[in-house]
Specification:
There is one protein chain. Helix 3 runs parallel beside helix 5. The protein is α/β, with parallel strands linked by helices. Strand 16 and strand 17 form a beta hairpin. The strands form three sheets. Strands 1, 2, 3, 4, 5, 14, 15, 16 and 17 form a nine-stranded mixed β-sheet that branches. The chain has a five-stranded parallel β-sheet with strand order 9-10-11-12-13. A three-stranded parallel β-sheet has the order 6-7-8. The protein has 14 helices and 17 strands. The structure holds zinc ion. The site of zinc ion (ZN) has 5 residues, from loops.
Length: 460
C-alpha cells in the first residue's frame, strides 16, 4: 500500500463513519478499515474526510480556443490550481467551438490542452452551437468516446434561429443515454429588455438585472423543461437563480420529467441590491442576482434535495475587466472566480449554519455530479475501487477571503473580506497529496490531470 489515512471520520452521501483507516494504492482506495501497512501515513484524527469536490461547470480558456470573444483569465493550469486549493479534484469544462469550428475539433483541442496543463482530472461538455446533421453525428461520436453530456444555450440568438434542430438534438441525446446542460434565459426577451434600457438611458450597472429579467429565466426554463418532457432528454438546468424557475422545474419533476437542477454560489450568498453599490458591475453573472426570497428558496431546495448540484460556473475576470467603463448594463462581462471558495462557503453557511447535513453537502458538491455525468462510482464517493480523490477537511479553520491572493488569475473575489470557517487541510488527487495546509505541493504540477473516464448519465 502506498498511503494510509488513519482515524478518519469518513463522510459520504449515505453515511458518516468515525474512526476509519483508508488504504490507498496506485491512486485508488483499496481498503477501508482493518489492519494495513504503508510507507506513508496521514493522521486525520479530528478531521472529516470527504470525497473530492466535483465542479461540473467551469470555463477555463484552452490554448487556441476562440470562445466568441470571451477569453477568461484562467487557463487549465491556473483554474485547476484554484480548484485543488478549494478542495475540488475534478472539473467539468465547457468546450466552446470557435466561429465555424466543429464541436469535434473543439473537444479534441480542449482535451489536448487539458492533458498538457490540468493539475487535476477534468471532463468536457461539448457546446452545441449549430444543430446541423453533421454536428449531431459529431455529438454521437463524442458520446461514444465518453463525452456523454452536451451544453445548449437558450440565451444565444442562434437558438431561436434553429429551434427545430435543437429539438432533434435533444432527441438524439436522449437516444444516446446522454444529458443536456441547458442555459435558461430567453434571448428575445433579453434583447427587448436591453433595447428598452437603451431607449430609456438606463445604462448604469444597477440596471443590469432589468436587462436580463426574471421573466427571461422563467420562460426559458419552462421551454427547456417542455422540450425535455417531449423528447425524453434528461435536462440539467445550469445555474438556476430564482424561485420562479425552481417552481417550473419542481412541477416538471412532479410530472415525472427528468429534470436536474444546478445552482451557483452567488445566488446563495448575494442579492440584486449589490448592483447599486459602487463597482457593482463586479457581481454581474447570467442570470443576475435575485431577491432575498429567491435566496431563501434555493437554500430550502438544497436542504430538501430538489437541487442536485452546486457548481461554480467559474468564469474569471480581473476587477478592472469587470469594471471597464466602456461597458454598460446591457453588456457587462459575465461571471467570476469561485473555484477556491465554493466548498468552504457552502460548508460554512450550510453545514455550520445548520441548513445542510454533511452527507447532503457531499451529495451537492460531489456525488450527484458524479452520477449525472457518468463518473460514479470511480469518483464522487469513498469506497473500495474509487479514485483516492479525498479532502481532509478542517471544520474549525477560519480564513478571511482575499481573491487577490488566490491561485486564480482573477484578482478579486465577490466575497473579499468575508470570514469563513471550514477549509481543506490536505487534498489528495488519485492518491497524491496535492494540497497541504492550503498550499499546492510540488506534486500538483500542470499535466498530471487526466481526462476522467465517463459512462452514460445515471439517475441520482
Ligand atoms: Zn457557464
Amino acid at each position: 500500500m502506498d498511503c494510509i489515512i488513519r482515524n478518519a471520520t469518513v463522510v459520504t452521501a449515505g453515511s458518516v463513519s468515525p474512526n476509519i483507516d483508508i488504504g490507498i494504492h496506485e491512486g485508488r482506495i483499496v481498503q477501508l478499515g482493518g489492519p494495513m501497512q504503508a510507507d506513508r501515513e496521514i493522521d486525520a484524527a479530528g478531521r472529516y474526510v470527504l470525497p473530492g469536490g466535483i465542479d461540473a461547470h467551469v470555463h477555463l480558456t484552452a490554448a487556441g480556443s476562440e470562445p466568441h470573444s470571451y477569453r477568461w483569465v484562467d487557463d487549465f493550469a491556473a483554474g485547476t490550481a484554484a480548484a485543488l486549493a478549494g478542495g475540488v479534484t475534478t472539473v467539468g469544462n465547457m468546450s466552446h467551438p470557435g466561429r465555424d469550428e466543429s464541436i469535434l475539433t473543439a473537444v479534441q483541442r480542449d482535451a489536448a490542452d487539458g492533458l498538457a496543463n490540468a493539475r487535476c482530472d477534468f471532463f468536457l461538455h461539448p457546446v452545441l452551437m449549430d444543430p446541423t446533421a453533421s454536428e449531431l453525428d459529431a455529438v454521437a461520436a463524442l458520446h461514444a468516446a465518453g463525452h456523454t453530456s452536451v451544453k445548449i444555450f437558450l440565451s444565444f440568438r442562434r437558438f431561436d434561429r434553429a429551434v427545430s434542430g435543437f429539438l432533434d438534438a435533444f432527441r438524439r441525446i436522449a437516444a444516446l443515454g446522454g444529458i443536456a446542460l441547458v442555459h435558461c434565459e430567453d434571448v428575445a426577451i433579453m434583447d427587448c429588455a436591453c433595447t428598452m434600457l437603451r431607449e430609456q438611458g438606463r445604462l448604469g450597472a444597477q440596471h443590469f438585472p432589468a436587462g436580463r429579467p426574471l421573466a427571461a429565466e422563467r420562460a426559458a426554463t419552462e421551454r427547456a423543461v417542455a422540450m425535455g418532457e417531449i423528447t425524453g432528454c434528461p435536462i440539467y438546468i445550469v445555474h438556476l437563480s430564482s424561485l420562479a424557475a425552481l417552481d417550473a422545474c419542481r412541477a416538471a419533476q412532479a410530472r415525472g420529467t427528468n429534470v436536474e437542477i444546478e445552482t451557483r454560489p452567488i445566488y446563495l450568498f448575494l442579492t440584486e441590491e449589490r448592483f447599486a453599490e459602487a463597482g457593482g458591475a463586479r457581481y454581474a453573472g447570467a442570470p443576475p442576482l435575485r431577491s432575498e426570497r429567491d435566496v431563501e428558496g434555493l437554500w430550502a431546495a438544497m436542504t430538501q434535495g430538489s437541487i442536485a448540484t452546486v457548481a461554480t460556473d467559474h468564469a474569471p475576470w480581473t476587477l478592472s475587466q469587470k469594471l471597464d467603463p466602456a461597458l454598460d448594463a446591457t453588456n457587462l462581462r459575465l461571471g467570476m472566480a469561485e473555484l477556491e471558495t465554493m466548498l468552504p462557503m457552502l460548508w460554512w453557511a450550510g453545514v455550520r449554519g445548520g441548513q445542510l447535513s454533511m452527507s447532503r453537502f457531499v451529495e451537492l458538491t460531489s456525488t450527484n455530479a458524479a452520477k449525472l455525468f457518468g463518473l460514479y462510482p470511480r469518483k464522487g464517493t469513498i469506497a473500495v475501487g474509487s479514485d483516492a480523490d479525498l479532502v481532509i477537511w478542517n471544520s474549525d479553520e477560519t480564513k478571511v477571503i482575499d481573491g487577490s491572493g488566490g491561485y486564480s488569475n482573477a484578482d478579486f473575489s465577490p466575497y473579499d473580506g468575508w470570514s469563513v470557517t471550514g477549509w481543506p487541510d490536505l487534498v489528495l488527487s488519485r492518491g497524491e497529496v496535492v494540497v497541504e495546509q492550503g498550499q499546492l505541493t510540488d506534486a500538483a504540477r500542470p499535466g498530471r490531470g487526466q481526462l476522467a473516464q465517463r459512462g452514460p448519465s445515471q439517475r441520482r
